[in-house]
């Protein structure tokens, strides 16, 4: 059970390794998803320096549809069981999934809806000792990339995160267990993503640890000149992580743990 403040448990910089447990991942080339193969990938990320593994059973890519509680549990529960004892985060918006994950020892709930989807999730987190990540998203995954609009993306994301932080604290979750996330790519154009990173210090100024996820995201490929990009390259992901580190980000949610850990170690060593 987590008792340390999040800022102590995850010193800056800490890396969160991404483990997608969706049917298109860790299958034997066909339809049979293999939790043991997923667990091996997670152990490799931990050996490479990840502080925690973020396990997600609901694809949250732009355009993705939702999954039922039963299906999401069918995907994540065998992996949670296989990784019991390792540092785990559960990427879910469902109280039922979070409850099971916390029983398997998950220490963080990563909710991309920032406690807006499931009215029971705040209580599940409050009644545990879990850490919580509150992320900004404009719209719903199905439609969020259609026409994202802001007057000032940074002030709107900041106001949203302050409001969700107050909501979580009101629900009984201590502030020292909460990190905030600008939600790079979630209802944002390339320009919005770039401005959020340029002005990340304004999000850091809220006073909570900041988590950023930009690993392989399509805005990086688009920034590099491919308007149809669906992914971004590793080099671009690392540059983004280093830039976010310089602006005060604490936790980095990434696919390429070994490379990002090395880059952030150098960035931290030379930081002003
Ligand atoms: C290629 C690679 C294309 C990755 C798309 C993607 C975040 C997150 C995701 C994030 C937090 C993703 C669950 C989207 N992104 N959680 N989750 N912050 N807290 N897309 O930025 O990786 S999934």
From TrEMBL:
Domain Pterin-binding residues, every copy: 13-265
**Pathway in which the depicted protein is active:** Cofactor biosynthesis; tetrahydrofolate biosynthesis; 7,8-dihydrofolate from 2-amino-4-hydroxy-6-hydroxymethyl-7,8-dihydropteridine diphosphate and 4-aminobenzoate: step 1/2
Any single GO BP term:
tetrahydrofolate biosynthetic process
Q: Which reaction does it catalyse?
A: (7,8-dihydropterin-6-yl)methyl diphosphate + 4-aminobenzoate = 7,8-dihydropteroate + diphosphate
Q: Sorted alphabetically, which InterPro entries does this protein's record hold?
A: DHP_synth-like, DHP_synth_dom, Dihydropteroate_synth-like_sf, Pterin-binding_dom
Q: Which Pfam families match?
A: Pterin_bind (PF00809)
Q: Which Gene3D superfamilies match?
A: Dihydropteroate synthase-like (3.20.20.20)
Q: Does the keyword Transferase apply?
A: yes
Q: Which is one GO molecular function term here?
A: metal ion binding
Q: GO CC terms on record?
A: cytosol
> What broad class of enzyme is this?
transferase
What's its EC? 2.5.1.15
Instruction: Give cofactor(s), names only.
Output: Mg(2+)
Q: Which UniProt keywords apply?
A: Folate biosynthesis, Magnesium, Metal-binding, Transferase
Query: Does this UniProt record's set of keywords contain Flavoprotein?
Result: no
Coiled coil stretches, renumbered: none
Looking up PANTHER family in the UniProt record yields: FOLATE SYNTHESIS PROTEINS, FOLIC ACID SYNTHESIS PROTEIN FOL1
Q: Spell out the protein name for this chain.
A: dihydropteroate synthase
Give the source species: freshwater metagenome
